[in-house]
Amino acid sequence: MIVSVLPDQIIITLDGPAASGKSSAGKGVAKALGIPFVSSGLLYRAATYLMSHYGVAFHDDQALLQLLYTHRVELILQVNDNRVLIDGKDITDLLHSDEIDHTVSTVAAHNSLREWVGERLQELHGPFVIEGRDMGTAVFPQAAYKFYLTAPVEIRARRRFDEREADLEAVATSLRRRDRLDAKQLTPAKDAICIDTTNQTLAQTIEQILAYVHAARSP
After folding, report:
1. Rg for the chain, CA atoms, rounded
2. How many other C-beta atoms lie within 10 A of the C-beta of residue 133?
3. pLDDT (tens digit, 9 = 90+) per residue, 138-171?
4. What is the DSSP code (8-state) at residue 94?
5. Less Cβ crowding at N or C end of the chain, within 10 Å?
6. What burial letters (b/e) apply to 51-87, b meaning 16+ CB within 10 Å?
7. pTM value?
8. What confidence tens digit (pLDDT) does each residue in 173-206 have?
9. Structural domains for the chain
10. What is the DSSP letter of 78?
11. What is the number of other CB atoms lying within 10 angstroms of the CB of residue 45?
């Protein structure tokens, strides 16, 4: 891998649909560059967890806002991973469940939540690698390096199936639903490098991203 020190405030965005490899590739790129990795989706998952935990209807925008401003939600950045704390309690391991997978896109559709997440993320200081749906378009349009990772739903379903105990077709159906709900956010930035991860290993995807970053920084 190519290891290089990036200037302060440099941001690398990785966007794309669910299970396209953004998180794994983002962690690998961040580790190789020695900078923090940011998973924007954890903030959406934290909001979904709050609504579920307190029995709030997923369509109730006002109740969601009240939860977000009543409870202290913290995203702790680490090079290899992120942790989410709510009122000082680490709830990260509760955020990757089939229930949250199924409902997070519905919750994320709230414009007020998207604004709240965007505000929290824009409070962060680079350099860092960040993954999400619209990091390179809506949240960090000024990012120096933008990538868009994608793969057919069947390939993504197999990856998610390998991570969870669920029926493969059910996973594929859930991903198709998420793609529909996330459609507005799944448009690549015009200046993003698009990478189809279908026939690539994780290591190859990481190397490809690092190669683009290295080439762009070379005189």
Report:
1. 17
2. 26
3. 999 999 999 999 999 999 998 887 766 667 888 8
4. G
5. C
6. bbeeebebeeeebbbebbeeeebebebebeebebebe
7. 0.82
8. 888 988 888 888 888 999 999 999 999 999 999 9
9. 11-211 (3.40.50.300)
10. B
11. 24
Report the distance separating Cα 158 and Cα 64, nearest Å. Answer: 33
Q: Please, is 119 exposed, middle or buried when counting C-beta atoms within 10 Å of its C-beta (0-12, 13-18, 19+)?
A: exposed
State how far the Cα of 191 lies from the Cα of 215, in Å rounded to an integer.
15
Q: At 29, which amino acid appears?
A: V
Q: What count of other Cβ atoms lies within 10 Å of the Cβ of residue 203?
A: 11
Pair of tokens at residue 148: 């868009």
Tokens at residue 41, please? 């989706």
Q: Which stretches of the chain are DSSP H helices?
A: 22-33, 41-53, 61-70, 98-108, 111-122, 153-163, 168-181, 202-217
Buried b (16+ CB within 10 A) or exposed e, 7-35: eeebbbbbbbbbbbbbbbbbbbbbbbbeb
Q: What would the two tokens of residue 203 be?
A: 């290591």
Q: Specify the 3-state DSSP secondary structure of 153.
A: helix
Sequence-ordered alpha helix ranges (H) in 79-148? 98-108, 111-122
